[in-house]
Amino acid sequence: MGGIRSIPMQSISQLDPVDVLQQHWGYPAFRPLQEDIIRGVLNGRDTLALLPTGGGKSLCYQVPALCMPGVCLVISPLIALMKDQVGALRQRGIKAAAIFSGLNQREIDGRLDAAADGQLRMLYISPERLATEKFLGRLDRMPVSLIAVDEAHCISEWGHDFRPSYLRIAELRQHLPDVSVLALTASATPAVKSEIALRLELKTPAFFEASFARTNLSWVVRRSDSKKQRLLHMFNKVGGTGLVYVKSRRRTKELATLLQANGVPASFYHAGLDAESRESRQQEWMQGKIRVMVCTNAFGMGIDKPDVRLVAHFDVPDSLEAYYQEAGRAGRDGKPCWAGLLVDDADLVELSRRRDEDMPDLAQIRLIYQQLGEHCRLAFGSGLGESFDFDPAPFARHYKIPVARLMTALSVLSQESQIALNEAAWLPPRAMMIAGREDIYRFQIDNRMLDPLIKALQRSTPGIHDYFAHLDERKLARSLDMSLEELQRQLQLLVQYKLLAYQPRQEKPTLTWLQPRSDARNLPLDVKHLEWRRERHRERIQAVLNYALSTEGCRSSLIQAYFGEKAEPCGLCDLCRESKSPSKTLVLHGALRQLLSQKNLRAAEIVQRMKPHSEQEVLNALRWLQDRGELRRAPGNTLTCQA
Fold first, then answer.
1. How many CA atoms lie within 13 A of 185 on its CB side?
2. Crossing angle of the two packed helices 392-399 and 403-415, in degrees rounded to 10
3. What backbone torsions phi and psi does residue 329 show, to the nearest 5 degrees?
4. Which H/E stretch holds residue 477?
5. Collapsing DSSP states into helix, strand and coil, what is residue 204?
6. In 10 A of CB 635, how many CB atoms?
7. DSSP 378
8. What is the three-state SS of 564-594?
9. Residues near 498 by Cβ (< 8 Å), separated by ≥ 6?
10. Contact indicator for 431, 471 with CB cutoff of 8 Å
11. DSSP secondary-structure letter at 331?
12. How many Å apart are CA 242 and CA 307, to the nearest integer?
């Protein structure tokens, strides 16, 4: 270990973090806790920081990375987030790079060499890369100043997004014993916090934790027989930009069409769209050209739009951690905003089913493992280290497996270090000239047909002789007056003649086998551990059910209690507002419950029986009770008390 080049932070000259913040980001001052976290890191302290979504976690390692010489290693599980952050840093003139699945070996080598030679200030890397010989071979030459672990809850089996590859992070400490570790997450229960500190081997760490309370956010649950009408009502009532989260790709388009038909400018986003559509729709939403984006959870990670007024969940999320993170994209500018969860009876039935059935048992996991081997056409004993394009949706349809159960089984197999499922990452086409300039010139003389392409590549793609440069294939094809297909055919010809290294566009998820394929009957799985995971799964789903069904207390306090924080009533959520209702309204609610528990009645009949209350008072009370799920529609267009 003696050859490792790390930088003990206590002994180095540092820039002032406020100066760095103002110079590179233009902010006059830090947000609460940010400066405390940063100064603790600069003093060489291991640190665990919990900051809510939108709380500025990335600055907590980016600023210290620029205060010290050397390179900051940022470990992140999210390819899209790594790419976004590297792009944003480069726009600010900060040298940064990322290494993740989909890059070729030449690109990986180039980025590792740049980090080892001191040409980068930040290197983002996925946890799976930490154990590779290629990375460890360069690590002994890297002047590492800080190890930042983003999404640190992924190291905990108590958490909702455990990733076994995170367990390898602690091994870095053996190579870099004098380098501090900063662990960051937006959501962690007390059990998760304890496990993060233990698994990362944090040394007498400093703990910083912002409150989970969002003082400008109103949490609302709406029970309704017509969620679509309730969704329209929400966006007609609340102005400004919004997000609608759903679980299926089909529903994104369906709800976006509904909103558009009712005068709400909307679009939809999911991972199945091509990369250009995803990019253009994201930009249109960011620029305010689209008011509402209907999306799956593929949208929103790393996006910082401060003026989101409403985040609606049309489908119930799988955990309060996920719900808190997604809803937390509202109101980052500190102005009033709303998080609305829409629920009907079918949702509650489905949530109960997911609690009891979606966590597959041992036999189901073994069967899915066998089907994966068949899908990849692997013989027993083969497949170690091999990667395959893998889209879970068609796989689930082919084998008639519920998608939720498949994803849970894949998670278990990943946690058991059998496979790794990498998210889809859009990588633009890249190319690098690998022949010398003299050889290229001679080739141009002998191959006039390809001469225009070679000239266009060299003219329009700076750096193509030195590194893998991004190609704008459509622009290049237009300049050469040829089709995109013909351009790609000619590029492949240059590859065959060994003049060019070319990587076509990539945007598919991949499945990697971490162990040789074995007979499913002999697959080594920890049965006791699997049952422990099943229980954690049930607890997380039950917490969501409890939140959705609560009729008293405070929604914000429920969420804060889940994360181990004591709280006072927020005064903003639907439950708090209802508790402040005048006694006259409470009496009316009670009278309606009693009346409709005895007999089903139409609204007009109810109004007559509730006099001297006005018609509007009665209709408002009926709507309120229906929203809460206490009343439901019955045959004959009547209302009755919910059983």
1. 28
2. 110
3. -80, 0
4. helix 473-479
5. coil
6. 7
7. P
8. CCCCCCCCCCHHHHHHCCCHHHHHHHHHHHH
9. 434, 435
10. yes
11. -
12. 9
Structure tokens belonging to residue 278: 């995803």
Q: How confident is the model at residue 317 (pLDDT cuts 50, 70, 90)?
A: very high
Backbone angles phi, psi at 575, to 5 degrees: -70, -40
Rounded-to-integer distance, Cα 70 and Cα 27, Å: 24
| Residue 48 Cα distances to 42, 66, 183, 393, angstroms | 14, 20, 5, 37
Question: Which among 197, 222, 175 has a CA at the least distance from the CA of 50?
Answer: 197
| Phi-psi map region of 527: left, alpha, beta (phi>0 left; psi -120 to 50 alpha) | alpha
Q: What is the pTM for the complete model shown? A: 0.72
- Tokens coding 350: 């489905």
Q: Which residues contact 127 (CB under 8 A, 6 or more apart)?
A: 75, 77, 154, 163, 165, 166, 168, 169
Which pair of structure tokens corresponds to residue 419? 């496979």
Instruction: Quote the CA–CA distance of 362 and 374 in Å, as a whole number.
Output: 19
Alpha carbon 488 to chain centroid, angstroms: 33
Beta pairing, strands 387-389 & 206-209: unpaired
Residues forming beta bridges with residue 149, ordered by sequence position: 75, 183
Residue 155 contacts residue 167 (beta carbons within 8 Å): yes
Nearest to 244 by CA among 197, 291, 176: 291
Contact between 61 and 21 under an 8 Å Cβ cutoff? The reply is no
- Please give the span between the terminal C-alpha atoms of the chain, in angstroms, as a whole number: 68
Coil, strand or helix: which one is 60? Answer: helix
Per-residue burial over 482-504, b = 16 or more CB atoms within 10 Å of its CB, e = otherwise? beeeebbebbeebeeeebbbbbe
Report helix, strand or coil for 247. Answer: coil
Q: What pLDDT does residue 12 have?
A: 45
Mean pLDDT value of segment 533-554? 90
One-letter identity of residue 475: K
Note the pLDDT of residue 11: 40
What residues form DSSP beta bridges with 184? 49
Mean pLDDT value across residues 27-46: 91
How far, in Å, CA of 485 to CA of 606, rounded? 68
**Cβ pair 285, 216 in contact under 8 A:** no
- Cβ(51)–Cβ(210) under 8 Å? yes
Q: Identify the residue whose tokens are 């109960």.
A: 352
- Angle at CA 142, nearest 5°, toward 181 and 424? 70
Quote the strand ranges of 246-401, DSSP E: 266-269, 292-295, 308-313, 337-343, 387-389
User: pLDDT digit string (tens) for 410-469?
Assistant: 988 987 889 887 765 556 788 889 888 899 999 999 899 999 999 999 988 887 887 778
Lookup result for tokens 């006099």: 611
Distance separating alpha carbons of residues 304 and 462, to the nearest angstrom? 31
For 505-530, the pLDDT digits (tens) are: 766 778 889 899 999 999 988 888 88
Taking only the tens place, the pLDDT of each residue in 340-354 is 999 998 998 988 888
The H or E element spanning position 269 is: strand 266-269
Contact 575, 554 (CB under 8 A): yes
In Å, how far from its chain's centre is CA 147? 21
Condensed to tens digits (0 to 9), the pLDDT of residues 42-59 reads: 999 999 999 877 678 899
Amino acid at 90: R
Share of the chain above pLDDT 90, in %: 42
Whether the per-residue pLDDT at 8 is higher than 50: the answer is no
Segment 328-348 shows an average pLDDT of 92
Q: Is the pLDDT reported for residue 271 higher than 80?
A: no
Phi, psi of 536 (to 5 degrees): -65, -40
Task: At 253, give phi and psi (nearest 5°).
Answer: -70, -40
Ramachandran class of 412: left when φ > 0, alpha when ψ lies in -120 to 50, beta otherwise: alpha
